[in-house]
Amino acid sequence: MYKVPDLPYGYDQLGKYISGDIMRLHHDKHHQAYVDKLNAALDNAPALKDRPLESLLVDLSQLPEAVQLAVRNHGGGHYNHSLFWQWMSPDGGGEPRGELAQAIIARYGSFQAFVDEFTTKSLAVFGSGWAWLQPNLDIITTPNQDTPIMQGLNAPLLGLDVWEHAYYLDYKNKRDDYVKSWWNVVNWDFVEGRYKA
């Protein structure tokens, strides 16, 4: 049985950028719903229950057809959100340091140019989806709860949830304000750890 991981910080600790109300709703309701629906779907394929989630997501076509869509949607939601909580920190924001910072500047010319491109792609997602920074420093987007590993790509270094449920209590329909605020809580230490790995 899959479980929602605990937040690595308090609900209210992301301060004025992402409120405790949105964190409670997002973590306790939306993420929990993905896990509940994933577990329920796997009742129809009990042999899959002990497999790591990543192994289900990387080759959806090999799963029984009856569970493919549920694993894609709800398993993807669980995978994405389990990382999303770690990509934020009360001590986040600022700029990356070390090897990652150098690589971003080499690729984009400056950290701000990277932020601008990532933001532009985040805002261009139609409807619900995610923006990702990949290990090769490409910035890509996916719809709904799709994740790069479903496309045969490496696990992302950084991801931003641009579903309305991630921000509507705080920012209403102003995704641009949400994305701008989110940069103040990005956990660059976690991102750099993934880059080095």
Give the SSE layout.
Elements (H helix, E strand, L loop, with lengths): L19 H23 L10 H5 L7 H20 L13 H11 L2 H14 L4 E5 L5 E5 L14 E4 L6 H4 L3 H8 L5 H9 L1
Antiparallel strand pairs: 1-2, 1-3
Q: What number of domains? A: 2
List the strand order in the largest sheet: 2-1-3
Mean pLDDT: 97
CATH-defined superfamily of the largest domain:
Iron/manganese superoxide dismutase, C-terminal domain
Helical content (DSSP H or I, runs of 4+)? 40-55%
Q: How many distinct beta strands?
A: 3
Sheet with the most strands, sense and barrel status = 3 strands, antiparallel
Low-confidence stretches: none
Quaternary structure annotation:
single chain
- H and E order: HHHHHEEEHHH
CATH topology (fold) name of the largest domain: minor pseudopilin epsh fold
Describe this structure as you would to a colleague.
- By secondary structure, the protein is mainly alpha-helical.
- It has two domains: 20-84, Fe,Mn superoxide dismutase (SOD) domain (Helix Hairpins, Orthogonal Bundle); 98-196, minor pseudopilin epsh fold, CATH 3.55.40.20.
- It is built from eight helices and three strands; from the N terminus they run αααααβββααα.
- The chain has helices at 20-42, 53-57, 65-84, 98-108, 111-124, 168-171, 175-182, 188-196; strands spanning 129-133, 139-143, 158-161.
- Strands 2-1-3 form a three-stranded antiparallel beta sheet, sandwiched between helices.
- β1 and β2 (139-143) form a beta hairpin.
- α1 (20-42) runs antiparallel to α3.
- The longest helix is centred in the first third of the chain and has 23 residues, at 20-42.
- The protein starts with 19 loop residues before the first helix and ends with a helix.
